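Reminder: ligand-aware prediction takes two inputs, not one.
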Amino acid sequence: MATLTRDQFIRILNGMNIELPLDTKFEPKKLQQRLHKALDAAQRFRTIFPNNAVNPANYPLWKPRRPLYPVFQRNMKPGSHWATDPRGEMSTSEMPLPRDPVVEPEIVFNKVVDTIDDISEDWDTESRHLSIMLRDCDSSRAVFVRVFSVHEIDVDTPLMFLGYMVIERLEQRDYDEILAGYLEPGEAMLMYFLKTIEQDMFLQLLSLNLKHISPTAQPPRQAQNPRFQLSFFMPITKIAQPDVARLAKNTGCVVCGRNTTGKCMTCLAVQYCGKDCQRKHWKAHKNLCRPTEPSRDPQPTLAKDAAS
Ligand SMILES: [Zn+2]
Ligand SMILES: [Zn+2]
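Here is what comes back for the chain with zinc ion:
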């Protein structure tokens, strides 16, 4: 699976109100963990599923006449830093935009949330049969999503149970295979045009929720294809402030990105994993290091974190 760069991870998190400095030395793997925690906070996963494992079959189907879109859409409460897509609202005739400018990572989360809201609306209007191709005109990679069913976790929480597959080189025969193998007679496949980075972010969410699916969960019989990976969508909310604070904390040692054990005792502004990194950094840091108390002379002394 193509993955996001360090810079993209940080800027996507910044777009979710999780403000990490761009020079954070975290490895991409650690940034991915941080992103997954942020996504779990945004879909309130731990609150709704304290036992972690999701088996959609344990929940009733969403009521046939109750529209899904208003429930998905009302959960969006823009935050102060909520980035908007400069492309704005587009009519169908204007899409796709194969030559549109590079997507700023800060708006990618917003785009994913908007797309999930749109998918919930499609579920309402397409008589609850839904197959979607997330693709882009200038990239050959695409993500195929089939929504199997929608379940009522509680009265305000629907869950779209789905299968997805990544198609690395989209060709006509992939459409033919999907049309022949997955779609019900007469069912249409809807197309969403998403840039590569937006697809990457979708795959982050899908692969996170794949891990939340219980090993006992089964796809419906007609969709038991080995290429499908099981996952789901739930309504996405603004991340609660305590979670924002928790997720923006601990940005790692400024030199190596490892967990910190203390900070510069003179200025209390820079965090390190230990004395070695602090010594390495001193040559650069000493010009910026200002004592919090005027009586202290700048020197490379490590103040230990109380918590560690
Ligand atoms: Zn270090
Ligand atoms: Zn200092």
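The longest strand covers residues 139-154. Confidence is low (pLDDT under 50) at residues 77-98. We will return to this case in the review session.
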